[in-house]
Amino acid sequence: MRPWSDTETAHLLMLCQIHGRDWRLISKLLGRTPKECHNRYFELNPALRRQPTRVVRRQE
């Protein structure tokens, strides 16, 4: 896997604003795999990652 250039990263973010998270479409436009696009997007936006769910029990 080749490293992401600054230009590619900017295009990825722009395409995500236009097309949402359609990784297949975005990957075709960038010449990357859908997985690469997905992973790069979440590397740039760690707050969007799913957090483990916590069960909170009420005390009675």
Structure description:
It is a single chain. By secondary structure, this protein is mainly α. The chain is built from 3 helices and no strands. It has a domain at 6-46: Arc Repressor Mutant, subunit A. Helices cover 55% and strands 0% of the residues. Helix 2 (23-30) crosses helix 3 (34-44). It is elongated, with a radius of gyration of 16 Å. The model has no long low-confidence stretch (mean pLDDT 88). This is 2390_t:CDS:1. It comes from Dentiscutata heterogama.
Give the class from helix and strand content and strand pairing.
Answer: mainly alpha
Largest sheet: none
Number of strands: 0
Roughly what percent helix? 55-70%
Which topology of the domain at 6-46 does CATH recognise?
Arc Repressor Mutant, subunit A
The proportion of strand residues reads under 5%
Rg of Cα set:
16 Å
Low-confidence stretches: none
CATH class of the domain at 6-46: Mainly Alpha
CATH-level-2 architecture of the domain at 6-46: Orthogonal Bundle
H/E series, N to C?
HHH
Number of separate helices? 3
Oligomer: single chain
Report the mean per-residue pLDDT as an integer: 88
Give the overall shape. Answer: elongated
Ends apart, CA distance between termini: 54 Å
